[in-house]
Amino acid sequence: MNHVKSVGMKFLVYSIIVLFVLLFYGFSITSLLLLCAFLAVITYVLGDLFVLPLRGNLFATVADGVLIFLVVFIWTVPNYGFYFSLLAGALFIAIIAAVCEWFLHIYVIGRELRDRDREPVYE
Hints:
The chain has about 120 residues and is mainly alpha-helical. About 85% of the residues lie in helices and about 0% in strands.
């Protein structure tokens, strides 16, 4: 259940950022929400479950930021074409999302520590 809560928080954060930036480019809300759902799942699986425990918060935040930039840019270019304003929009989304990811990672780390303390020890 904790995974659903974390992915839901990521989806909410990404939805706010992506809708704020890319809605002005004429994308449909449905395609942007699909993008946000894809971003939430892929960054949670790759960033929070694999990279964060191995490398720490800073490395996972940078990796998530790069991944977000690449996914947003690749997702939007076929629909809109290559424009530098779209490149700037994807970069803006990635930077703001990476800042939010820093705090989401702190939440995930704290949740794991709380869950570990609650687990019964069978000896």
